Amino acid sequence: MIVIPADGQIAVVDDSKVERMILSRVLEMSNLVNPVIEFSSAVSFLNEIDGREQSDLGLSLVLMDINMPVMTGFEALPQIRVERQMENLKIAIMVSSFEARSDISRAEELGADGYIAKQAGIDKFVAEINANFSNEPAY
Amino acid sequence: MMAPELPDNEQERMAAILDLEILDTEREAVFDRITRLASHIIDTPVFLITFVEGDRQWFKSVRGWDLTEGSRENSFCGHAIHSDEVMVVPDTLDDPRFVDNPLVTGELGMRFYAGAPLILRDGIRLGTLCAIDTKPMELEQDQLDALSDLAAVVVDELGLRKGLRVQAEISIDLREQATELQHANQALEQYVHMASHDLRAPVQNLVNLADLAMLDTEGEIRDLVEPMRHSAVEMEELVLGYGRLASLTRGRLELRNISELIDQAHEASGRVLDLQQTGDAALLCDTVLVSQALVNLFQNAEKYGVGGCVTVETTDEDEFVGIAVSNPVKATFAVDQSVFAPFKRLVTDGKGSGLGLSIVERVAQLHGGSVSAYCALNTFTVKLTLPKVDPG
């Protein structure tokens, strides 16, 4: 379970417009109260955070796709963690469930805090979000 | 002297000789035995097994001479291959064809020749089995017959080894083909895995979009979107199944108690079954794969059973561990090994992908084990049999 502050945005970084749309709706329906901001590529997300302090970004969580053209999620992770030294920004990757095992461990080595498996079925998808993220620590 | 003429079918005859791959090979006991045997039937000092080829005659077996070949021009055998009969020259000095032949007039001083042609098939005479002496003589008919018989034995031996060679070539061919097929199969599996992987995201999207559409829609549209979603879900199951089936490979082996794997799989199956376990055994296996197989069996039990208790019987059978999953069914039905074939479905209500049991079988195979299914007394059982010792 990753606890994310309620006062920041959730950045969804995915090249698929359809998948961004679905994920935004799923996040709306989840227990998370954060507003969503969409990025259609890792590059546009990096442009957004370039030259800024992490505390100024107003981001509570980054949900990042792995398979994206130009720059993959794997390539983007060290750009965020090492190049821009944003060690505390919460980043989770999104995987389709059956490619998961190796992708997840690779992403975690590159600095991802966690992952969610994309689901077929909105109920399942919402449950997946609620099982992995919360605005409040669970006591 | 009369040099032998070339037979009309010389080209075909030559091809036949070359095909036997006998020319210029080492001496071999089997042919030397034949010339030795011939020497007990005909009392001459020299016996040859010759092949008349190009401008020479080559000797596979030589008894009494220290030669391996001679010229075709001077050869007696070059004449003998023009007929199926044994060619007999009782006295070379009386025969105008040979009277001035260097083999007769020279050091060897040939006075007698009897050559039985090596008849491969109609009209194809390869050479001879021949008897030679330095003094003239006459042969009895049964000696001529015996010489022909031994010539036939030579040809039989040639045919036999040709057959063996062909067989060896075929088995090499078969092995190569098997390797090719294996590669083609691997490529195909890889393709299926990739296709399945690439299809997954759009299919998931379809299901989710249908869900979202249904949240916002009422009435007729909803009646259309709902079956659309159902189709997409079916598609997702198929895509997932193809991918799993194509990408199943055995990973790390771990020693685990079957009872633990059963509990774990029960939980992972997402089904709440009235599960009863009997027996237990420790098994060295890829626990991920075996759990996957059990998950499929539990899901099947829930999907196709009629409720009631699902029993899992673990048996410790010396070299194997048996895991039999049984569930009650509506009626006893006939079942055979074909239920494990991909896309085979026991029921036609559209509930399954037809891949669940294929995956179970594949898991068994990857462990060097087997799987069987049977139905009796309204109970359907699938039994996994897995070897205790890692097969390799």
Task: Give a description of the structure.
The complex is a heterodimer of chains A (139) and B (392). Chain A has a single domain (2-134), classed as 3-Layer(aba) Sandwich (Rossmann fold), CATH 3.40.50. The longest helix of chain A has 13 residues, at 17-29. The radius of gyration of chain A is 14 Å and the shape is globular. Chain A has helices at residues 17-29, 42-49, 54-57, 73-83, 100-109, 122-132, and strands at residues 2-3, 9-13, 36-39, 59-65, 91-96, 114-118, 133-134. Chain A is 41% helix and 22% strand. In chain A, α1 packs across α6. Chain A has six helices and seven strands, in the order ββαβααβαβαβαβ. Chain A is of the alpha/beta class and 139 residues long. In chain A, the strands form two sheets. Chain A has a five-stranded parallel β-sheet, sandwiched between helices. Chain A has a two-stranded parallel ribbon with strand order 1-7. Chain B contains nine helices and 13 strands. Chain B has three domains: 10-169, GAF domain (Beta-Lactamase); 185-247; 254-387, 2-Layer Sandwich (Heat Shock Protein 90). The longest helix of chain B is centred in the middle third of the chain and has 76 residues, at 141-216. Chain B has 392 residues and is an alpha+beta fold. In chain B, β10 (309-317) and β11 form a beta hairpin. Chain A binds chain B through residues 16, 18-19, 22, 25-26, 96, 98-99, 118-123, 125, and chain B through 197, 200-201, 203-205, 207-209, 211-212, 215, 232-233, 236, 240, 243-244, 247.
Task: Give me a quick take on this structure.
With 139 residues, chain A is α/β, with parallel strands linked by helices. Chain A contains 6 helices and 7 strands; from the N terminus they run ββαβααβαβαβαβ. Chain A has a 5-stranded parallel β-sheet, with helices on both faces. In chain A, strands 1-7 form a two-stranded parallel sheet.
